Structure prediction request, 487 residues.
Amino acid sequence: QVNCHDLCAETSAATEARIKNTVQRASVFAPCVLQLHNIHVLGRDRDGHAEDPRVAMAFWQIIADLETMSPNWPVVIIATAPSSRQLTSDMHEGFLHHVHLEVPSESVRTSILTSLLAEEPCSSDVSVKYLAQRTAGFVLGDLYALVSLAKNHGYERLSQLVPGSMTYEDEMNLIEAGVVFLCSDFISAIDAMQAAHSDSIGAPKIPNVRWQDVGGLADVKRDILDTIQLPLQHPELLAAGLRRSGVLFYGPPGTGKTLLAKAVATECSLNFLSVKGPELLNMYVGQSEENIREVFEKARSASPCVVFFDELDSLAPNRGRSGDSGGVMDRVVSQLLAELDGMNKSSDVFIIGATNRPDLLDPALLRPGRFDKLLFLGISDDRDSQLKIVKALTRKFRMQDSCELESVVSQCPLNLTGADFYALCSDAMLNAMKRKIAMLEEGTIEDQSVEVSQEDFSGALATLVPSVSNEELVHYKSLQRQIAQQK
Prediction:
């Protein structure tokens, strides 16, 4: 086994010499297998961007000379790379056989975990099927690491039950005695691994937003569940020719587009991959298109999955009008369209887009089979809807008996968005905390629980300014009517 990073040198000539020396040493042990890890780094310059055809030509010439080095016994070359697209064209064409290793599906992960946990003492609350559902996107090495990390959590849990610090002998006795691993040990390990993985590459994971956290929007909830939940519950309909479509949320800012997408993923037990349009754009030629391909590959590997494109108008503006001389945005839009069309072959990857300006999107995105279901998320302009939002936001608050949310809502303007109501409830809680701190400092009470009063909401209302003006609301209503007429 050889890591190709170790073969790269300061100059092409030095790299060629290292490759030749490695192959010659392998021929001594023929018949043998020479495994080259990270083959994609060969054939590139030191920066890793431009191709170095001299190294690629020398590599294949050295491989061809193997027949003379070892005419009777073969030396089999097996190379690995994160993606075949990362290889230079010269290196890619030389390999006769290409094998794409898929990320394990849920059923495969179930089999792997069953095998890994067969000899481990696990409590009855450990469900291998549940663990397989929670580990979407994990490969074999990740699952091995998961079991090891869960063991660490189990031993740490037991060590905390021992008063004082444990001696080395106590630790050895604990390890020899063994520990029964709980489901909580595995959940802690999964959360830790997903958090680290998400921070590094944006790995998908299931959010924790419920329908109760989303006030109002009953019609929108029903429409989006018909698009996403129906194919999951009745996959036979897909086989009969039902094409699943993408969903586009549009409307004023702060109306709950991101929150609703997370709630859908949670309620349907789907992984959630959130991408902001500007995050995918890159200064290097072709890198933006590559970023889009990686997003969809990541979604397919973590299926069932919801891909949420926020600020879609910045990623896919109307082609021919973006103003960039190199046509970068036009190529980005074309790549996005190609990936959306490819999603029709997958029955468990769902696409949700969100934008405040649907009029700026390329019209091709809104054609059937892509973002052909447009859902308008406007403000809640009636008291019942506003009350549902406030109740959803305050469902974990402790309220004074005299606090009436109906009275609070009756004082609210009719042009408040969901984000405005969030600010209102947050400020009310802050007022309650300040009042409680003052009472504690005066020593008048000992109870540290915070209860929100009617006066706290009144104080928050006095400083609340709507984030969307009446003129902007008129514009969005006009835009909604225009899109409805086009459909």
Remarks:
- The chain is about 50% helix and 10% strand.
- The mean pLDDT is 82.
